[in-house]
Specification:
five-stranded mixed beta sheet; 16 strands; eight-stranded mixed beta barrel; 514 residues; alpha/beta; 22 helices; elongated
Length: 514
Amino acid sequence: MRGLVLEFARQRRRPDRAGIDRLARVLGLALAPLLLLGALVAGEGLGTALVVAALPLSVATALGRPILKHDIRRDSLTGLEDRAALIRRLDRMLRAPDTARRAVAAMAVEIDGFKHLEQRHGRPAVERVLRRIGDRLQDGLRSDDGLARLDGPSFGVALSSSRRLDLESAIQLGQRLQQAVADPIEIEGGQVHASISIGFALAQRLEQPGGAELLQAATLALIEAQRGGTASIRSYSEAMRHRISIRNGLSDEIAGALDRGDICAHFQPQISLGDGGISGMEALARWHHPDRGLIPPAEFLPVAEQAGLMSRLGEVMVQDGLNALRLWDAAGLKVPQVGVNFSQVELADPRLVDRLAWELDRFDLQPDRLVIEVLETVVAHRLEDVVVRNLSGLSRLGCRLDLDDFGTGHAAITSIRRFSIQRLKIDRSFVSRLDCDPEQRKMVAAILTMAERLGLETLAEGIETRGERDALRMLGCSHAQGFGVARPMPRAETEAWIRAAQAKPAPLSSRRAI
């Protein structure tokens, strides 16, 4: 063959058809005729180069199938198996005798907040994070377990029957893997602290599963875990599949519900603890489903977030809130301000400040009548530049900023001052049983003292009894809201409540709300 190749490389005349076919058969390449004909035009040097370039392709044709098959089974970034290889491994495990088969399990693992990591540190840094986490997961597994990178920030694990896993031991293994990942990862210019959420599925909980079905069950458990917050672990159950099916159905309906007005703002009054007067309203999203009735926010808000509809929902809440203020003004009802919750997704919208300025102008309202409620967990972490600019821009615009659920997110005092926060909303977990729990009173007293020193107003959330109201007032809290004041109400009911409250201050319920 070598002699034939060199012969054609040296020739400057057109080779005959039989010679071309002969070379094609020897090299095993359909492109050989085109390469050699191109050589006649380009000259001897290029002709030689083209023929030599063809040689590795012939080798790949003859010998490369096993190599290519191996490459397909491996992730190019981490060197781990891919999804198809992991499923084949699970299939092999599940073909074992019944007692061993039922001990097989799959895990689905995902890096928490991966999108924000990539936006903050860039692609090269997160690729290093992916490789390091892959290494650490591998170190935490046994040699007969299988680890694969599924896609993006997701990994899959095939746990062999040698572990004899039950529910408790699977959770313990998941916790050990989380601990292995928790150490900081060095990147250029700093460190990354990553966490993982885990879903797992035991083969014994499914009827005759295949590898794909077992991995899918683990993925469903991962989705449930992520709903519980970062670094969560969940085990698969059939009830979980049913819940996820319902949520997927809701996801398809939410956009239409927003357009039709089925999802709208209900308003919960906020009062001054000094004189009982109305100090504001909080706009809260409620969904009146045509078939299912009122769907709880805890059920549809996570679905809206997963469907990428939080910005659209936020727009509806702002418009409903500002429209209500305008109507109450026209009716002579005194409501100083309305508060709207803003998710981190909304705060990352570069058009946010301009959009809110336009909405305030459209409804002819001063900016200080719109309260931007931001979760403490948002400002407790390093923020994207656009979020920082938006919070500063909203403050300059004149909007008020409330730090919501204070006490749960470990926000630093520097963050409170940096963003010109004007009021702390004390989380309901500190308010419950405040009148009969000395430890609760100490915690709330410390928060109120800090707020006073910083010149901040305070509002207690979740107040339910007169005793809690009296205790808060004695400790020096400024405002309160909760079922003990009033439940969230549609705008028409809220208007009736305002009229009654302004005619005669409505007494707080002395009975714990159910």
